[in-house]
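Notes to self after the Tuesday call (sharing in case useful).
The group wants a holo model before anyone commits to mutagenesis around the pocket. I volunteered. Ligand is manganese (II) ion. Logging inputs and output together so the record is complete.
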Amino acid sequence: MPARGFDEDALKKHVEAGKIAARVRDEAVSRIRPGARLLDICEWVERRIVELGGRPAFPCNISVNDVAAHYTPPPGDESLVPEGSIVKLDVGVHVDGYIADTAVTVSFNPDYDALLEAAREALEAALSVVRPGAKFREVGRVVEETISRHGFKPIKNLSGHSLGRYLIHAGESIPNTREPLRFGTFKPGHAYAIEPFATNGAGYVKDARDAFIYAVVKMRAKGLRSFEARLLREAYSRFRTLPFAARWLLDLGSADAVIGGLGGLVRRRVVHAYPVLVEAAGGLVSQFEHTVFVTDDDVVVTTSSTKL
Ligand code: MN
Ligand code: MN
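Result:
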């Protein structure tokens, strides 16, 4: 074997995380049906990840209709999968900090099948141009072309991203629209999430008022109440810099206490809250996502479907 210019251990752990993420994603699809509780689906996803030997890299995201991303059920959420809806499930798994990030869309309305297909084909087209040295803007070009050909718009302010150890967004963005001036190339030894979003709306998302996903951004702050300090310590020791949900801290206090404490940490800017992202014109949204690991001469799609 010739020496390779990247960390073999990182590849092995990315592949392991990807296998778990793909399996959980594919198994979860049959649990997404009208009338099912979003909370039950997400708790199942997160439990299954651990059962298979991984850890959630972020809270299970389940985003319905015009919600594009970043919805995870808050504690006690009674929301159900609506009849006739289109639902995105976004699953993140890490093994020793090496992340797999993958998403699928399920439609319960034949009228939305074309929208779903547009994002699925856009992801296929994107993966076909990814190779060592390929330009990020090539992805944006083929994603926009594919989605436009289906009569929809790509969501321009959501993008793919480089992945770092314990880092979901490691600094580089992979565009979903044509951006001739976008620099950056796919580099051996690095992992990337590629995730086209298609919509029949305005083509961009805005922040909703609610935020149910958090991440620690600073390790200390002056004047924290003792419960806030405890929440911060526990959150960092459990999740490091990865996103987490209030649901994952309910052993420390009641839902109200945990949500209130996290709110205090957000106001002091030691914890970041990710707002739910909704389509700006209320359009419906579809999304597909895979994670790739770029080797010296090839690309490994770590989250490819496993045969069930
Ligand atoms: Mn994702
Ligand atoms: Mn992603």
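Two things stood out.
The pocket of manganese (II) ion (ligand 1) is lined by residues 90, 101, 103, 195, 289 (CB under 6 Å).
Residues 208-276 form a domain with the Arc Repressor Mutant, subunit A fold (CATH 1.10.10.10).
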